[in-house]
Amino acid sequence: MQMSRRGHYDIPLKRDASGRFLPWIIALMVYLAALALAASLSLSDLARRWDSGLSGSLTVQVSPQGGESADALDRRVQSVMASLADLAAVADAKPLPRDESRALVRPWLGEGALLDDLPLPVLIDVTLAPGADAGSLRQQLTAPGVVVEDPGRWLADLRRLAGAVQGVSVVIIALIGGVAVAAVIFAASAGFAVHRAEVELLHVMGASDRYVAAQFQRHVLRLTLLGGGIGFALAALTLVGLQQAGRGLEAALLPELALTPVQWALLLAVPAAAALLAALTARITVTRALERLP
């Protein structure tokens, strides 16, 4: 027995209420899964950018001593620069201009006399030679008011945080997938129970189990595509809204919310995967129900 035309249902699945709430359940599941995946991608991208930008580098901070003049501070900075030039572990070193140092604290202090009068330390950006040990460099620079800041410590913490977020995201997506599968099983089983008489009639007319299961599979796939499209659209609007809201923030530590085309493609795979999983679940559920028919 073959379908007479594309999209035709021999079982009136569109008129029953067994799958009425399935699109909204799938929409919520896709929305939550897309946001969890977007958060994982954003934090991983942030960790990767910081790792590539700060790996193999460190910052030497020369702080002004009490009552020290600007000229005296400059002489100490030149002394530290000379010490760095003599170290084989240092590939390059350059002091950060005072204007850039002020720009780093301006978002927190604002413009005004406080920022102008604040004795800011001089920052020296140091690039290490390949294989150099930052710990040994810290031991060699032991002058008063000189502090070596190694970003490797908090970069390691950031990597662990990114890994933890990815793990939590996987767990969340797996739980969402499990709830979606349970909802599809319930909808397919309820639909089969409601239309059992029509199914038995199709069997009498010569319809195979494969043909009947395909009817339910197509119906669930249509509902899931509808719900997945709604959920993805809401997730995209949420992410775009967060991106627009974050443009006014000057805190450089916050992750960039703008996703790349590849990341958007990964997010688009969420509703597609949901539709395929739902269609397969519906087919297996109905096939097992058909096997139990007398």
- Radius of gyration (CA) equals 31 Å
Residue-averaged pLDDT, rounded?
79
Helices and strands, in order, run as HEHEHHEHEHHHH
Strand fraction equals 5-15%
- Strand count: 4
How many separate domains make up the residues? 2
**Main sheet?**
4 strands, antiparallel
- The percentage helix is 55-70%
Structural category is alpha+beta
What do these coordinates show?
This protein has 294 residues and is α+β, with helices and mostly antiparallel strands. The chain is 66% helix and 8% strand. It contains nine helices and four strands, in the order αβαβααβαβαααα. It has helices at 22-54, 70-85, 98-109, 113-117, 134-140, 152-194, 196-204, 209-246, 261-291; strands at 57-62, 90-95, 122-128, 146-149. Strands 2-3-1-4 form a four-stranded antiparallel beta sheet, with helices on one face. The longest helix is centred in the middle third of the chain and has 43 residues, at 152-194.
Q: How are the SSEs ordered, and which strands pair?
A:
Blueprint: H1 22-54, E1 57-62, H2 70-85, E2 90-95, H3 98-109, H4 113-117, E3 122-128, H5 134-140, E4 146-149, H6 152-194, H7 196-204, H8 209-246, H9 261-291
Antiparallel strand pairs: 1-3, 1-4, 2-3
Concise summary:
The protein is α+β, with helices and mostly antiparallel strands. It has nine helices and four strands. The N terminus is likely disordered.
What distinguishing features does this structure have?
294 residues; alpha+beta; 2 domains; 4-stranded antiparallel sheet; 66% helix; 8% strand; rod-shaped; disordered N terminus
